[in-house]
Amino acid sequence: METTLFWLILFTLGWTLIDGSEMERDFMWHLRKIPRLVSERTFHLTSPTFEADAKMVLNQACGIECQKELPAPNLADLEDSLSYETVFENGTRTLTTVKVQGWVPEPHENLTAQGAPVRRKRQVYGTDSRFSILDKRFLTNFPFNTAVKLSTGCSGILISPNHVLTAAHCVHDGNDYIKGSKKLRVGLLKMRNKGSGKKHRSSRRSRREARGGDGREGSRENPKERAKAGRRRKPSARGQRAADGMPSFQWTRVKNTHIPKGWARGGRGDAALDYDYALLELKRAHKKKYMELGISPTIKKLPGGMIHFSGFDHDRADQLVYRFCSVSDESNDLLYQYCDAESGSTGSGVYLRLKDPDKKRWKRKIIAVYSGHQWVDLNGVQKDYNVAVRITPLKYAQICLWMHGDDASCTYG
Questions:
Q1: Which GO terms describe its molecular function (predicted)?
Q2: In a domain, 314, yes or no
Q3: Poorest-confidence range of 12-21, 67-76, 166-175?
């Protein structure tokens, strides 16, 4: 236990054991000019049926080599993919087209594959290196407190008092919105004080007795009947968890959901893994510390080549699970890695801890969204990876538009 805690603290707070001068020179947040997305026109669409299965439907992800051979997208194609659907709490839906301003095409880098061996279709590779975060001192503090659970079974990350970033396939399979996403909720872990359940039941009983016994005005309950009822009454599971001081989820409804058209093709083409991200606006703001967005650096700019993310893996029963691993390969929009992860962790925010050059302090930022397990083609060989969608300058601009509207001032990121 002590060894596990030592490594957890080491990689969460320090993460790298390299020369300090090298750290100062290479591993900083380099601010980049962000293009601007402006809403052009908004159309009302028919309400979705919310009948899709809760799974990602892709014919075959374009692999690393495939992406290198693709021509750079033109402005019209990008504007089409970055147009977006919004689904509101009442089930109505709109499509908003956008215009891109100040965009300078970035060259497709010659990103070299590392030649990892073909693996069996698993999300946990070899020895399970995940950490279950059980200590409430970790659960309730940054950065772990930023992880949330979706009622559809995925994870997400808080990026403002009102917004959660997650994977698009957690609410939409590429053709339709999935079952359960119509009344989507977000669960935030909350520690309840010991005895809160007892206090709640006590105050409720006091109010009932003040009204005359069983809650009906003027009623009088026979003492013998009351004793029998007390013997029959058992403490609820929720009350027991609260009394024990265990964590529980505080659920908040989602006001609206934004998904890029590059993912929500609606039967007009394959959903593109590059656009597997979505933004959820909460109906009620939270008071937790949240994670800022950052532009995804290349592998060479990752401290130790490592990434980190926390989510609610299905095989660990509502436990928050943290992991870190090195990135194996990359394309301009995706990170390919073998971080141990099971279903339920998809939608988690992948983050780094780099130095802020202006304020001279270390800061964690979200640089990708964990999408899940995918087979990709590499030099004619089928390989499987766990894949994350990188936050590029254009995606940063789009998420900024979703959060702040056309008056957004996200100039650098």
A1: serine-type endopeptidase activity
A2: yes
A3: 12-21
Instruction: Give the tokens for residue 350.
Output: 């992948």
155: tokens are 């994870």
Is there a domain that residue 267 lies in? Answer: yes
CA 60 to chain centre: 23
Q: Helix (H, G, I), strand (E, B), or coil: what is residue 273?
A: helix
CB neighbourhood size of 174 (10 A):
24
Structure tokens at 246: 């265990």
73, 97, 101: which is closest to 85 by C-alpha?
A: 97
Does 231 reside within a domain?
Answer: no
Write the pLDDT tens digit of every residue in 13-25: 444 333 344 444 4
The residue that leads in pLDDT, 374 or 123, is 374
Which residues constitute the domain of residue 334?
Answer: 30-103+129-191+246-404
Rounded to whole angstroms, what are the CA distances from 218 to 89, 203, 204?
Answer: 42, 19, 17
Q: Which tens digit of pLDDT belongs to each residue from 93-103?
A: 999 999 998 87
Q: What is the dihedral of CA 369, 374, 378, 383, to 10 degrees?
A: 130
263 occurs within a structural domain: yes
Q: Taking a C-beta distance cutoff of 8 angstroms, is the pair 376, 385 a contact? A: yes
Contact criterion met (CB below 8 Å) for 176 and 50: yes
Residue 296 corresponds to which amino acid? Answer: S
Which is nearest to 382 in space by CA: 193, 194, 121, 177?
Answer: 121
What mean pLDDT do residues 207-220 have? 36
DSSP code per residue over 208-223? HHHHTSSSSTT----H
Residues in the chain, overall count: 413
* CATH number of the domain to which 81 belongs: 2.40.10.120
Which helix (H) or strand (E) covers residue 3, if one does? helix 2-9
Q: How far is CA 75 from CA 34, 78, 82, in A?
A: 15, 5, 10
Vertex 29: Cα angle to 116 and 367 (nearest 5): 50
